[in-house]
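The instructor's notes for this session suggest beginning with a concrete chain rather than abstract definitions. Hand out the sequence below and ask the class to guess, before any prediction is shown, which regions might be ordered.
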Amino acid sequence: NSKWGAHDGIVLNYQAQELSKASTPFFSMLLTLSTHEPFEVPVATPFNDPSEPELFKKAAWYTDESLKNYFAEVKKQPWFSNTIFILVADHGHRLPLNRDYYDPKIRRIPLLIYSPLLKSEFIGLKLNQTGNQNDIASTLLNQLGMSSENFEWSNDLLAKDRHNFAYLSLDEAFTWVTDTSSLVIRPNGRNEHDKGSPTVALAYLQLLFGRFLSY
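After discussion, reveal the predicted structure:
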């Protein structure tokens, strides 16, 4: 019922219903889409301006509201108290601030780990590390006391000796970000950077593709 599929509220409600019939333990995931263009939502929101930034806020409000309703529902399930929920975006957006497409700031994404199983010292904890989605694997497995050695490219967000960085691949460029710098490298030689050096980024990329081609 939307350009990309079903509205978030419908999808979240469907998953909640399906999980009520699932046997445990289970692994389940879904992809929301209401915060993707054209930002269509089926309900009224506090954001009614037709401008693109306001449409983005409108869609984000709807997704948040859908998540609130979702958690209110799944909290009633017997498996809720033994479940880990991970909310993470696949990519960021230039809106609502109309940032430049190559600005690394538009690639920033939310990552939320929520569970009744969280230790008290992790409740409300905000991490400032710079990382990627692939870092979730080792972060979660190490906290569960399980081996993460199969996830060679995963960098535990809670590791005390962690080197903070993020790698981003675009169609015509790639970006390397640390806590103090950012670098955009393009094949045509036009690089854009803020205190960044391409040496480590190029070494990472060389190793990454070398490992891929060796499989």
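Then share the key points. DSSP finds four helices and six strands in the chain. The beta strands are 85-88, 111-114, 166-169, 174-177, 182-185, 192-194.
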